[in-house]
Amino acid sequence: MAEQEPQFSVIVPLRNARATLQDCLSSIRPQLDATWELIAVDDASDDGGGAIAAQFATRVETLPEHRGAAAARNAGAKLARGRVLVFTDADVIWPPGAVERLRTQLVGRGETEFCLVGIYAPLSAGSALPSRLQAFNVHALYRALPEADCPYSGAHLLAVTRNLFAQAGGFDEAFAGATIEDLDFGYRVQALGQRIAIAREVEVIHAHEYDWRGLARNYYRKAADLAALALTRRLPPSRVSGRPGAEVFSLAAGLMLPVLFVLGMWFDWADNTNAILLLVAALLWWRDLVLARRTFGWRFAVLFYFFKWFVAFFGGLGAARGVIDVAHARLQRRRNAT
Question: Taking the model in full, what pTM does it have?
Answer without folding.
Answer: 0.89
